[in-house]
Amino acid sequence: MNSNTFLRHDFFSCSRWLKETASGLFPVIEDHRIRVTSGTLHIKNALISDGSKYQCIITNGIGDKRTDTVLIVTAPLRVTVIPEHQTLNIGETAVLNCSVNGHPVHTVTWRKDQRHLAANSRVQLLSRDVLHITSVRREDKGMYQCFVYNDVDGAQGTAEIRIGGNVLNVE
C-alpha cells in the first residue's frame, strides 16, 4: 500500500500515543514507518495490521486527558473463483472457491447466471467462500459469480460449470 497516515489531536499536542490490541492498550512503538513528531503520529505506508483504535494522551499541569481515534486501513478487493472452468458429468459434485484478496470483507454473495443463488439440499454454502453442489444436473451449467463488498469497494469473480455427456451412475 502506498499511503501515509497522520493522526493528531486538533487542539493540544499528544504527549503519548497508545495502540489498542487484543491484549490491551500499549505504547506505540516507533520504527522506520512509524514516528511521533510534535505529538502527531505518522504512519508511513500503512499496513492492514496498523488498523486499530489509537489513544492520544494529552498532559498538562492539571492532569491527563485521553482521546480516541480509529484508523481503518483498506486494501482494494480482488476476487478469483477457483476453478474458473470445470466440466462435470451429471451426478458429480462441483466445488467453487471464492478466493478474496483485500481488506476488509463485509459481505460475500453468490449468483448463477446473474440471478440470486438459493441454497437447497444440493446447493450449499460450506462457508461464505465455498459453494458446494452435489449430484450435478444439467440445469446447474452456467456462470457462477462471487461478489465481495465492503464500505468502499466491491469486486467479483466468475467461474463456469459445463456439463459433459456422460451420466454418473449413482446407486
From TrEMBL:
This is Down syndrome cell adhesion molecule. PANTHER family: CTX-RELATED TYPE I TRANSMEMBRANE PROTEIN, DPR-INTERACTING PROTEIN ETA, ISOFORM B-RELATED. InterPro entries: Ig-like_dom (IPR007110), Ig-like_dom_sf (IPR036179), Ig-like_fold (IPR013783), Ig_I-set (IPR013098), Ig_sub (IPR003599), Ig_sub2 (IPR003598), Neural/epithelial_adhesion (IPR051170). The keyword Repeat applies. Keywords: Disulfide bond, Immunoglobulin domain, Repeat, Signal. The lineage of its organism: Eukaryota, Metazoa, Ecdysozoa, Arthropoda, Chelicerata. It comes from the Eukaryota. PROSITE patterns: IG_LIKE (PS50835). Residues 76-162 form the Ig-like domain. Coiled coil: none annotated.
